[in-house]
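User: Please go through the entry that follows and flag anything odd:
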Amino acid sequence: MIDIDSIVTTLVTIVTTYGLRVIGAVVVVVVGWLLSRTAYGLIERLCNRSRHIDKTLVLFLANAARYAVLTFTFVTVLTTFGIATTSFVAAVGALGLAVGLALQGTLSHFAAGIMLIIFRPFHIGDTVETGGVTGVISIVNVFYTELEGENGRIVVPNGKLWGEIVKVPRGPARAA
């Protein structure tokens, strides 16, 4: 026969044990989500105060902070349920290394784009000569830069602009 008392006792034990963990996990998720939004907004406001920081860099930094907080939140929720996160963190690290090696060329253009945005060796509207092409800078993106040349649009990977000689003819002084 079915023993009702043992079933009720088992259910009460499960609810009290895991119910508190679920409530704790929900609280951690809500707090982590609010913190990620706060971090995003704070970084965006701080960076937008300076006109020297490019909008692309602002969005990159704000999103990086947001996803870092959400990743820590996810790991904390897993820990709340007693799941060992060391293996998870090691697997994420190995995955990051594998993706980094696979995207080595793209990541070098990305890193060069960040350097171009931060150090600003040239600005939109400048005429530059690099790698046998000459044009006026129209867009400086994180991965590539667009030039308007005589024969149309020229897309140059940022790794080429950062790693090669770029000639910027002298002109009137400009505000930074």
Q: What stands out?
A: The longest strand covers residues 133-140. The chain has two domains: 4-86, 103-176. Residues 4-48 form the longest helix (45 residues).
